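Progress report, Aim 2. The chain analyzed during this reporting quarter is listed below.
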Amino acid sequence: MSSMSFAPSPASNNTHEIFASLERLVNAVNTNDLNGIMKYYVPDNVPDETLVVFDGIPPRQYVGAAAFRQDWANFLASYPNGAHVEVSGWKGESEGNLAYGRFFFSVKGIATDGNPLNFTLRITDVYKKINGNWLAIHEHASWPVNLATRIADLSSAP
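Predicted structure tokens for the chain:
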């Protein structure tokens, strides 16, 4: 089971559904299931919707699920023995068929060079309910950066 923390608002079934989707994403990452990961995001075949992702690493943006799928494939390949991810601090709200969620996404594992590769991202997702499913249509991932040193705070501690 994933290690996740979530304090739902009692009146929101939508936030429960979105959080369940996020749990499935975490489980997919922890089991190296690329197809499962991509079920969290709007696919390229949905009319009038295109996934846009501002990731924490270059390039500046990914447009479309196929482009972001390749980014996830590269991520999984960088952890030959698998990565362990956890989500904390999830908060979300919905109105109609749109919602947002924000959370911390922590990653731990051993990289292909044998060294630990551990970091925590700040994530903000925008969701849309499409054919009965909440799907991420926009994702923004970031790290705080010390402007004096120009070094990212990869641990992103409070």
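Helices lie at 13-30, 34-38, 65-77. The CA atoms of residues 34 and 73 lie 7 Å apart. These observations will guide the mutagenesis work planned for the next reporting period.
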